Amino acid sequence: MNDKSAARTSQRKNSVGKIVGRYSFITIFLIIFAVFLIINHGATTWSGVMNILRHSTVLGILALGMGIVIVTGGIDLSIGSMLALIGGLSVTLFNATNSPLLTFVAAIGIGLILGLINGLFVGFGGMPAFIVTLSTMLIYRSIAQYYLRSMGLSIYNMNGNLSSYDSFYDFGQLKIATVPVVGIVLVIVTIIMVYLMTMTKFGKSVYAIGSNVKAAHLAGINVPKTRVLVFAISGVLCAIGAFLWLSMNGSLDPATIGKSYEMYAIAAVVIGGISMSGGKGKLLGVLFGAMSYTIIDKIIASLGFDALINDTIKGSILLVAVLAQIVVPAIRQK
User: Fold this and answer.
1) Any idea what the CATH number is for the domain that residue 301 is in?
2) What's the distance, CA 40 to chain centroid?
3) 68, 95, 171, 200: which one has the fewest Cβ atoms less than 10 Å from its Cβ?
4) Domain count, the chain
5) The whole model's pTM is what?
6) Is the dihedral of CA 232, 236, 238, 239 positive or negative?
């Protein structure tokens, strides 16, 4: 082999390596999915595969919001509690109006407000995102539970006797060519968010802030405003997730819904290849990260582990994923 041929071969290998590196979240997803198939001994059906997409919907949409916050170098620990509060208020509104459309619009409005509260404290208040969202995590869930108890109820339950209930609930069960509609919504939301982050000035500003806040400020980027918008978007995505949850389940318990979702969303983001230090990663990876985490959950169930040990396994996976983000780049630099 002459020098030119060797150079071409080396270039091809480097190109393939770069592509695999950029889209490692697909490789990780395929490996986890293969393990799932092996454990199930080929018993997984097409319907079972589609259920993975369906069960990834709410977490996936919340994780997209978490993803853009983490790209800025921040974090949003309140997403699970926002899901509970938005969902609870949405149930109350639906029962009062019998209108899925009005319920959806109100949910978006509530999510926007809750997200803005986080964003204003972080963006213009200059407070650490961890402290702000840890506080609102407690506040939002507490309000959801207190409001429920003030009505003398034990659970937020949509009124099945209302004329619009069936159409609302059927939407969550609907399939188009065997593909669940809620899963299609997840894919559409992902496409929109990927476009927002890759093809717009706003998305480039978000990455710039995560890479270097001072440089972003010197480049003329309004850092506080961008941070506020990022948290507002996270709130809106939580609203979409809450609406879809209700369409699939028809009720929610504010004491349990969304519990640990902030950790699961972070895991989906990390598995999807977004750096916890901010400024790096593809939002498309979050979709595969969420599905990977859903499959991991199913693998744990298939292996028959005690339910109490589930979070130990999931927490360990999160630690390994974050460690890999640190170790792999360090090895490449050597």
Assistant:
1) 1.10.3470
2) 27
3) 200
4) 1
5) 0.89
6) positive
